[in-house]
Amino acid sequence: MKVVVYLDILLVTNFIAGYFLLRAAGRLAGASCPALRALAGAGVAAASTLILLAPALPAPLGFCYKLASAALVTLAAFGWHGPRPFLRAGAWFFALNLGLAGLALLGLQRGGMNGVRVHNLTVYVDLSPVTLVLSVLAVYLAVRLVLLVFGPPAGQEPWQLELRLAGHTVRMQAYYDTGFFLRDPVGGRQTLLISWPGVEHQLPGEVNDFLRGYFSGESPLPPRGVKLHLVPCTGALGTAVLPGLNVDEARLTGPEHALSIRNVTAVFTAEPLQDGQFQALFGREFLMDETERRSSTCT
How far, CA to CA in Å, does 137 sit from each of 23, 223, 228, 266? Predict the structure, then answer.
C-alpha cells in the first residue's frame, strides 16, 4: 500500500512534538532548556525527518544518521556542558520519544495498523495531526504531573557569593558541590572555582587582560598586588592547570548560613558552570573548615 507523506504536516507536527519533548526532557534531566533553544532543537528534529524522502540507505549508515541527528538535536537544545549532562539530556529525550511512540501505537490499535511506513529507520504513522499533537501534550503533561507529585530533580542550593579582588567587589551565584575537592597545592588555601565568562563584566580591566592572555596560551603577569597560584584541576574533559588569584575576602550567604572567609584563592576557568546557571563552585571542606574556625573561636 502506497503511503502519501504530506511534507508540511510532517514538518509542523514533528516541530511541535520536538519542542514539548525537549522541554520535558530538560525538566527531567535538570538541564537548562530555554524556549529559544528548545525551538532550535525542535527545528533540527523536524528537519531530520526529511530522511523519509531520501533513497533507501544501508542499515549501518541509517543508524549513524539517527545517532548524529539525535546528537544535533540535543546539542541545539541544551548546548555542550560536558559529556554527562549531554548524555543525560539525550537519554531523557530518547525515553520520552519512546513514550510518545507507545501512545501512537495505542491509537493505531483502535483504527488498525494501516498507514505505517518504515524507511531509513524512521517510522511514519498515518495519524491525524491533532491526534499526534494531543499525544505529545499527554506525554508533556504526564512529566509535569510526575514532577508536581514527586518534586523536580535534586536542586542546587542557592548561595550568593561576594568577593574582593584587586580592589573591586564581584557578586555571583555559587553552587555547593559535595564532589568539589579543588585545593591550592602550595599554600593549602581554600579555593573557589569561578567561571570567567560569567563574571567577566564585573572584573577590573587588568584582571580580564591577564585571564584573556592566560587562556590564549600566553604567559602574562598577574595584576599588580595580586598573587598568582597555578592550580591543577581534573574534570570530565581532562586535566588542566588553572590560574588562581588571591582574594582579599569572600562572603557566602546561603540557606541559614552567612560566612566570611579570608585567605581564599579564586581559581578561574574559561568554561561555564552548571549549564551557565551558576558562576562559582565551592565544596564541603570550605564550609567544614569555616565551621571549625568559628567553633574554636567561641571556645
Answer: 11, 55, 54, 46
